[in-house]
Structures are given as structure tokens and as C-alpha cells.
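Example S7 (C-alpha cells).
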């Protein structure tokens, strides 16, 4: 096995580590036993995972002495709901889990968010072990304790509107699980890595390293993937340690929303696809974030805040990764701006954009509409 890495997330009494390596699922039982005193474990998995992946985790938990109960959920936004959380809670209560018993989340961001939310509210909080199996959840969603579900209001599905901060007891990122990830989903996860690279800016060479490593990353070379996840988790862990709960006074964690206000608005528009083929609609979250990153960089340049040419550099990197940098069928700017104003990151009705400036990534309150339009025009096919 390639040497596993451990990245600390330093949060005082809520500190934990993120383990990254190849083949770690075989150790999930022993690792969990080291973090949770209970003897019953409840594993929530993604119904799309190969059965052998789930079996690996179940065997390991059983060998470590846990009585294991398991449920799978469909990893689609419609299932990330209060109904799913309620069903899981009922099952968990029927299995008589107590306050010391761990919930194990095995899957991508949707599984991690729902299982984490259930762990946050069952008996006012039980330990959760996050075992991300997608690139996006390894580098982003599994770290930092954001949990939650979507809420349907009328015809609108409002993402992550209900939730809680609940830090995991441990994160186990087994990069062997990335072997079965569909190519499009794998590439979509890389949008968050590019976002982290922009946030790191001149403080590190994350973006340059990512750019240099594209062949190894896309070839899913295990050593390169471990380093990719390690570097990205390190970046995110530093931000979470500085601003655990996305505090307005600290305005650190909010920087992780770079590309997301544009991206979330684009993601909610029906019928968009990465290559104009309607069979490939809707856009994946990471694809919308890639478009959002380009729009944010162009918006910053239009405002005179961004380094000239920074949007073009992003277009080059994202394009080499195979992520969309333009999209056809984008509605008029007024409609997209309307959707952006609905984003849950809008505070007091004021649009707040995270923009890459020549002095680093920062929040810009109420940017002029023409600059936002310039950002949107840059991504129109
Ligand atoms: N994904 C952004 C955050 O964890 O804050």
C-alpha cells in the first residue's frame, strides 16, 4: 500500500485527522474503533457504489468487533431531503444506537451531507466517520463539518437550506475508490481543486502544481491522487481552522464560495449541459463551479481588481482538465442575476461575490451589474 498521509484539522476539542491513502477502507474498522467508544455502527452508503467497496468497509467494521447495520441511499439531490433523514433516523433508532455509536458515511457529498446531518441531530449528536468516495467529497465536502439537506419550496429545490455544523470524528479518504468513479464525475471534482489553487494564490504553488500534474491526475496515478487530495485538504483544513462556522466577522470560510454564487445560479437553470448535448443535461456541480470560476475571474478583471489575463489562465487549465468554460443556452443576464440573488450566500438582499483579485481572493459587496454581466458574457458559448 502507498504510504497513507494524515492531515490535521485543528479545532480544539473538535480536532480530527483526514487520512488519505490507497486501500484504507480495509482499515475502517480499526480506525473507527480508535475514535468511537460504541460497539454498534450504522453505515450509510451510496447505492451506486460497487458492492465490493461496501463489503470491504462492512468486513473491516465486523472484524474490529462492531455490530454493523447498513442502509443505502440514492445519491441524487431529490433524495437529499428531510424525508430521507427521517427514514434513516427511524432505522437508526430501531437499531438502538446510543450516543457513543458511530455513523459511517460511505459515498460522495450527498451521502456525507445526509449521514452527517443525521449524526448531528440523533440524540443531539453522535460521532460520524466520513469515508468519501468521490474526488469532490475527498477534497471538499467531507472536511469541515457542513452537513444538511435540501428543502423543496413550491417547485424550487433549495440546496442545503437545512443543516448543522457537525465535525466528523475522522475522515478516511481511500483513493482506491476513485478507480470506479465515472470520468465526468472525476473531472467535475477537479473544479474544486482549481478553486483551492486560486484561493491559495501566491501563498503556495497549488494551482501551478495542479496544472503540472494534470496528466498524472487524469491518468489516476495513485501517488499523484494522494498528493492531490493531501494538498487540497491541507488548504481547506487551514481555512476551516481559522473560521469554523463561516463567520461574517472572520470572512475566511466564505472564500471557499469562490465561483459558487455564479455556479449555483447556473446549476439551477434547467437544460444546460457541458457540451450543448441535451442528453448530458443537467450540469454537474463541479461543471457549474468551473463556469463560475471563469465568470468570477472575468468579473474581477472588468472591475479592475483582477490580474489581467487571470480569466484566460483559468480557461486554459479548466479546458485541459476537460471541464466546460463556456455554456450554450445561458439565459439573459437579468435572469441569471435574479437566480444569483436567490443564493443563500446573499446577505440582507445584497449580492456578495467572492472574486480573485491581484491581492488575493476577497469578498466584494454589491458589485456593479455591468461587471457581473461581463462575467456572464465570458461564459456564453
Ligand atoms: N464547501 C465549502 C465549505 O465547506 O465551506
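Recovered sequence:
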Amino acid at each position: 500500500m502507498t504510504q497513507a498521509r494524515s492531515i490535521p484539522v485543528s479545532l480544539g476539542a473538535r480536532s480530527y485527522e483526514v487520512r488519505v491513502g490507497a486501500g484504507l477502507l480495509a482499515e475502517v474498522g480499526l480506525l473507527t474503533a480508535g475514535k468511537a467508544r460504541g460497539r454498534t455502527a450504522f453505515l450509510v452508503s451510496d447505492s451506486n457504489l460497487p458492492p465490493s467497496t461496501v463489503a470491504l468497509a462492512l468486513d473491516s467494521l465486523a472484524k474490529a468487533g462492531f455490530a454493523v447495520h447498513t442502509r443505502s441511499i440514492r445519491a441524487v439531490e431529490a433524495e437529499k431531503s428531510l424525508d430521507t433523514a427521517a427514514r434513516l433516523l427511524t432505522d437508526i433508532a430501531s437499531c438502538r444506537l446510543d450516543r457513543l455509536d458511530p455513523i459511517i458515511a460511505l459515498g460522495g457529498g450527498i451521502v456525507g451531507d445526509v449521514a452527517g446531518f443525521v449524526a448531528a441531530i440523533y440524540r443531539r449528536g453522535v460521532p460520524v466517520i466520513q469515508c468519501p468516495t468521490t474526488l469532490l467529497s475527498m477534497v471538499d465536502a467531507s472536511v469541515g463539518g457542513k452537513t444538511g439537506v435540501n428543502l423543496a419550496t413550491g417547485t424550487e429545490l433549495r440546496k442545503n437550506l437545512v443543516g448543522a455544523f457537525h465535525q466528523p470524528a475522522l475522515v478516511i479518504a481511500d483513493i482506491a475508490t476513485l478507480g470506479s468513479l465515472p470520468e465526468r464525475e472525476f473531472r467535475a471534482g477537479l473544479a474544486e481543486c482549481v478553486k483551492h489553487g486560486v484561493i491559495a494564490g501566491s501563498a503556495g504553488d497549488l494551482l501551478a502544481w495542479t496544472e503540472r500534474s494534470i496528466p498524472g491526475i487524469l491518468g489516476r496515478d495513485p501517488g499523484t491522487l494522494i498528493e492531490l487530495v493531501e494538498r487540497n485538504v491541507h488548504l481547506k483544513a487551514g481555512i476551516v481552522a481559522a473560521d469554523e462556522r463561516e463567520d461574517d466577522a472572520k470572512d475566511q470560510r466564505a472564500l471557499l464560495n469562490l465561483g459558487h454564487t455564479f455556479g449555483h445560479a447556473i446549476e439551477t437553470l434547467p437544460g444546460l449541459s457541458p457540451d450543448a448535448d441535451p442528453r448530458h443535461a443537467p450540469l454537474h456541480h463541479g461543471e457549474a463551479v468551473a463556469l463560475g470560476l471563469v465568470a468570477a475571474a472575468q468579473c474581477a478583471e472588468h472591475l479592475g481588481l483582477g490580474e489581467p489575463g487571470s480569466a484566460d489562465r483559468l480557461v486554459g487549465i479548466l479546458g485541459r482538465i476537460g471541464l466546460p468554460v463556456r455554456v450554450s443556452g445561458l439565459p439573459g443576464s437579468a435572469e441569471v442575476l435574479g437566480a444569483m440573488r436567490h443564493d443563500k450566500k446573499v446577505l440582507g438582499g445584497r449580492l456578495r461575490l467572492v472574486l480573485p483579485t491581484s491581492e488575493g481572493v476577497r469578498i466584494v459587496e454589491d458589485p456593479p451589474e455591468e461587471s457581473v454581466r461581463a462575467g456572464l458574457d465570458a461564459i456564453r458559448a
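Notes on this example. The longest strand covers residues 156-165.
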